[in-house]
Amino acid sequence: MRSPDQVLTTAQMRAAEDAAIAQGVSVDELMLRAGRGAAEWVWRMAAGRSVTVLCGPGNNGGDGYVIAETLHRRGLAVSVVAPVEPRTDAAASARSAWQGAAASGADDRHGGVFVDCLFGSGLERSLSAEHEELLARLAARHAFSVAIDLPSGVATDDGALLGTVPRFDLTLALGAWKPAHFLMPALERMGEVRLVDIGIEPHPGAASVFARPRPSAPERGAHKYSRGLVGVISGSMTGAALLAAGAAMRGGAGYVKLLSDKSHPAAPASLVVDERDLGTALDDRRWSALLVGPGLGRDDTARARLAAVLEVGVPTVIDADALHLLDDEAIEGVDASRLLLTPHEGELARLCEAFGISATGKVDRAQGLATRTGMTVLAKGPDTVLASGEGRIAFFRPASTWLSTAGTGDVLAGLAASHLATGRDPFVAAGEAVWLHSEAARIASPAFTADGLVHSIPAAYARFL
Questions:
Q1: pLDDT at residue 1 above 70?
Q2: Strand, coil or helix: what is 284?
Q3: Which three-class secondary structure state does DSSP give residue 109?
Q4: pTM above 0.85, yes or no
Q5: What confidence tier does 3 reach under pLDDT thresholds 50, 70, 90?
Q6: Residue 2: per-residue pLDDT
Q7: Model confidence over 243-282: pLDDT tens digits?
Q8: Is 299 part of a structural domain of the chain?
Q9: Which class for 263: exposed (0-12), middle (13-18), buried (19 or more C-beta within 10 A)?
Q10: Handedness of CA 166, 170, 176, 181 (dihedral sign)
Q11: Domain of 159: which CATH number?
Q12: N or C, fewer C-beta in 10 Å, the chain?
């Protein structure tokens, strides 16, 4: 069965193509599938307008010649720019099938749609100054720009920019998603991203796009404890913990308690505030999940509260301040497979330093930290990566940019704790929380606050039922 959600690195994609070839599918056939599939999208975007296709020397350029010939046969005015002659047999074959001429430069070409097939995925070095300038000129002179597989100048496996890359309106992934389709800074250059199926089979060990969750309503005999009891540990700054608790209350769990040594007159009546000593409050066999970190502080008192939480041995989300207190000593003797970390970029860097992870790039750091510690890591931000200690990696489609406001991370942590409490493993709980968080942001009005995001959760939840 084909996997439309797999995410393949450069090496994995080559191996997957080799596997298809070993099963009798020729390189030329794969190129035809890719080019014709991409041409369908370009045809719709062109809407009768002229198209310029920039073809490079490799198989990405070969895809471009197929696109050009397909659109030409449908009656569009198509021109090809090819600064370099084909250097692979498949690209040369596609070039020979193209019925038109191929110019070596942009000249004064302009029109409706520009299609970038210069290099695509697999690029490991910067574009030459001539190619970079050619790419920029053609993109600027057309109403819409489409990148085939990846914009030329984007590193496939980590989303880095290998030079100046113009912004595209649409990027068409060929055969499988690539990590760069979900990673900054490449993500903001690609516009809408769509997948063109060319018959690639599932690749062992591949990452994936986390699938849309499918929760269900509580069972007829459910009660507050069977749906999950969540404890949110408060600290020196109570507002963050209240936000997280509010999200947890709306995220699917049946019962949420705020464990605090302070009074909370502003807490909603539906939130139980337990002001007893933390050790006493935690001495309850009914806990399903805990959340520690939002507003916790980073002093000795905070460290003691984190240690008390970890001793309980139930699934736990560790967020915000608590991430700055984690090290090998803190998790010694703890079942790390029960722990979910939710760091932003700076917190991820701090954790990697604390646990001796020298990797660069968001995916490698998240995966390295998860593998090293056995914990599940949700590396959040404008691009979000989920990694488990068993080696699973998942990516997510980009969420609303309005989430870039204070407190939304606390909301995400509360949602994750709520889903942990309903019996999900940390990897699934984190992925479902990201989806719900993103949907709540879509429902909330622009320029929402974290409080507004919390109140959008029930409507967001309803969309998944």
A1: no
A2: coil
A3: coil
A4: yes
A5: low
A6: 62
A7: 999 999 999 999 999 999 887 878 888 999 999 999 999 9
A8: yes
A9: exposed
A10: positive
A11: 3.40.50.10260
A12: N
In this structure, the strands spanning 6-7 and 207-209 are: antiparallel
Residues 87 and 122 in one domain: yes
pLDDT confidence of residue 109: 86
**pLDDT-derived band of residue 233, with 50, 70 and 90 as boundaries?**
very high
Tokens representing 418?
């709520």
Dig out the tokens for 193 from the structure. 């991203």
E-assigned strands of 323-458?
A: 339-341, 376-379, 385-387, 393-395
Tell whether 173 and 318 lie within a shared domain. Answer: no
Mean pLDDT of the chain: 96
Residues 339 and 375 in one domain: yes
Helix (H, G, I), strand (E, B) or coil at 320: helix
Say if residue 102 is in the same domain as residue 236. no
Cβ contact 180:154 at 8 Å:
yes
Q: Tell me which of 12-26, 97-111, 283-297, 331-345 is least confident.
A: 97-111
Q: What is the mean pLDDT of residues 301-328?
A: 97
* Residues in CB range of 250: below 8 A, 6 or more apart: 418, 454, 457, 458, 461
Which residue range is the domain that position 343 belongs to? 229-462
Paired strand residues for 208: 6, 394
The CATH number given to whatever domain includes residue 447 is 3.40.1190.20
- Pairing assessment for the beta strands 385-387 and 376-379 based on DSSP bridges: antiparallel
- Do 249 and 386 lie in one domain? The reply is yes
Same domain, 437 and 355: yes
Q: Which residue type does 158 have?
A: D
Q: Which residue has the tokens 């794969």?
A: 30
Q: Which amino acid is at 352?
A: C
Q: What are phi and psi of 135, to 5 degrees?
A: -60, -45
- Total domains in the chain come to 2
Q: So what's the pLDDT on residue 28?
A: 97
Residue 199 sits in the same domain as residue 236:
no
| Strands of 199-355, DSSP E | 207-209, 229-233, 255-259, 272-274, 289-292, 316-318, 339-341
Q: Give the per-residue pLDDT at 332.
A: 96
Domain assignment of residue 360, yes or no? yes
Question: Does residue 220 belong to any structural domain of this protein?
Answer: no
Residue 200 falls within a domain, yes or no? yes
